[in-house]
């Protein structure tokens, strides 16, 4: 099983957002234990560095992101992906289109996100964490 984990799952985990933190922890643990092959888009790292500034000091954030990059395959953003997404009228959200492009490159079975409404045109099926866990484990 191959998945792309969306940014909001990591925010749920770090910020301990209830009721989402338990599912986020389970998804991340599955990837850490190699029960599931997980990837992240490269821009997830920069987004998390900014988003988590209120939850973690700089050094702690950097270490968290280093650990994340060691655990998950990081799929890069290149000119072709940027241009495709900028011209793609099917997605209203540019960042979500990039997530889909990275998921396709990784040959992911699912995009794990709590924001499935913005992935209706996604080539890779977007699924909420609780639904993924119910289906797979």
Structure commentary:
There is one protein chain. By secondary structure, the chain is an alpha/beta fold. It has a single domain, classed as 5'-nuclease (Rossmann fold, 3-Layer(aba) Sandwich). The protein has 7 helices and 5 strands. Strands 3-2-1-4-5 form a 5-stranded parallel sheet, sandwiched between helices. The mean pLDDT is 94.
Provide tags for this entry:
single chain; 137 residues; alpha/beta; Rossmann fold; five-stranded parallel sheet; 7 helices; 5 strands; 55% helix; globular
Walk me through the topology.
Blueprint: E1 2-5, H1 7-15, H2 21-32, E2 37-41, H3 42-51, H4 58-71, E3 73-75, H5 79-87, H6 94-106, E4 110-112, E5 126-127, H7 129-136
Parallel strand pairs: 1-2, 1-4, 2-3, 4-5
Helix pairs in contact: 1-2, 5-6
Write a compact overview of the structure shown.
The protein has 137 residues and is of the alpha/beta class. Helices cover 55% and strands 12% of the residues.
Using the alpha-carbon principal axes, give the shape.
globular
Strand order in the largest sheet? 3-2-1-4-5
The oligomeric status of these chains comes to single chain
Mean of residue pLDDT? Answer: 94
Tell me what portion of residues adopts beta-strand conformation. 5-15%
Specify the CATH homologous superfamily.
5'-nuclease
Q: Kindly give the count of domains.
A: 1
**The CATH topology is what?**
Rossmann fold
Query: Fraction of residues in helices?
Result: 40-55%
Order of helices and strands: EHHEHHEHHEEH
| Rg calc | 14 Å
- Ends apart, CA distance between termini: 11 Å
What is the name of the CATH class? Answer: Alpha Beta
Poorly predicted regions: none
Largest sheet: 5 strands, parallel
Proper CATH architecture: 3-Layer(aba) Sandwich
């Amino acid at each position: 099983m191959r998945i792309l984990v969306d940014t909001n799952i990591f925010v749920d985990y770090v910020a301990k957002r209830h009721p989402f933190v338990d599912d986020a922890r389970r998804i991340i643990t599955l990837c850490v234990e190699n029960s599931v092959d997980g990837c992240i888009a490269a821009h997830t790292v920069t987004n998390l560095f900014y988003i988590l500034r209120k939850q973690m000091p700089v050094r702690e954030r950097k270490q968290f992101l280093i650990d994340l990059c060691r655990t998950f395959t990081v799929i890069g953003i290149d000119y072709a992906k940027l241009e495709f997404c900028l011209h793609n009228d099917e997605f209203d959200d540019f960042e979500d289109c990039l997530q889909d492009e990275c998921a396709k490159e990784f040959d992911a079975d699912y995009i794990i996100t709590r924001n499935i409404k913005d992935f209706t045109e996604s080539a890779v099926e977007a699924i909420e964490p609780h639904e993924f866990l119910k289906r797979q484990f």
